[in-house]
Design a protein that fits this description.
single chain, 218 residues, alpha/beta, 5-stranded parallel β-sheet, 9 helices, globular, binds 2'-deoxycytidine-5'-monophosphate
């Protein structure tokens, strides 16, 4: 069973997807974390992102592991724990550029499909219901008011010691939305058959219940 949850940054996807997966006792897959892991590795290598051969060589040598440890979604690249580092401002700044690269997307989609074919899971991202699993059993698209999204992102950043103003975060989110939605390869889009959930005025429990209710009804 595949439950696809797509939507823009800070729309409430991650928290909801994690809890839905926990309630249903299935795997949780954060595909944004995968793109962040690739971005970190490319930034460390200091190569030019447009150098397709070098990007491909890095992808070939990159092993991404993701697993739950005491409720924290741990991300490792080549056995190094980068859970915190992939949330840094620098990775966030470049992740839209990196995730727009065709070779990066192709490689990540192969990994995502492998995981999804092996186990029941809740997969969150931008293109899960449209490209990665167009035949997903359930598809949801989460949206929220920009101010609400910025507040949520600020709270999340605080956990990693990053301090910014609401204005700054709104501007970053808008810029990322624009890049994620306008790219040629798998842009952020609601699948025609996805159920839209506006989380602006919903508590986390309400968001989770909405999804679980849809799954029970169908
Ligand atoms: O969900 P997030 O903010 O951690 O995602 C980071 C970036 O990864 C986001 O700017 C878009 C990209 N992404 C993507 O292109 N496709 C996905 N399935 C998931 C994320």
């Amino acid at each position: 069973m595949i439950i696809a949850i797509d939507g823009p940054a800070a729309s409430g996807k991650s928290t909801t997807a994690k809890l839905v997966a926990k309630k249903l006792k299935v795997t949780y897959l954060d595909t944004g974390a995968m793109y962040r892991a690739v971005t970190l590795q490319l930034l460390r290598s200091k190569i030019d992102f447009v150098d397709i051969d070098k990007v491909s060589a890095i992808l070939d040598d990159l092993i991404i592991d993701m697993f739950d440890h005491k409720g924290v979604n741990i991300v490792k690249i080549n056995n190094e724990d980068v859970t915190g580092e992939i949330r840094s401002s620098n990775v966030t700044k470049y992740v839209s550029e990196v995730s727009a690269l065709l070779s990066v997307r192709e490689s990540m989609v192969v990994m995502q499909r492998e995981i999804g074919h092996k186990t029941d899971c809740v997969i969150e991202g931008r293109d899960i219901g449209t490209i990665v699993f167009p035949n997903a059993d359930y598809k949801f698209f989460m949206v929220a008011d920009i101010k609400m999204r910025a507040k949520r992102r600020l709270k999340e950043m605080k956990q990693f010691g990053i301090v910014k103003s609401v204005k700054e975060v709104i501007s970053e989110l808008e810029s990322r939305d624009q890049k994620d939605s306008s790219r040629d390869n798998s842009p952020l889009r609601k699948a025609k058959d996805a159920i839209e959930i506006d989380t602006s005025n919903l508590s986390i429990d309400e968001q989770v219940d909405k999804i679980i209710d849809h799954i029970k009804i169908k």
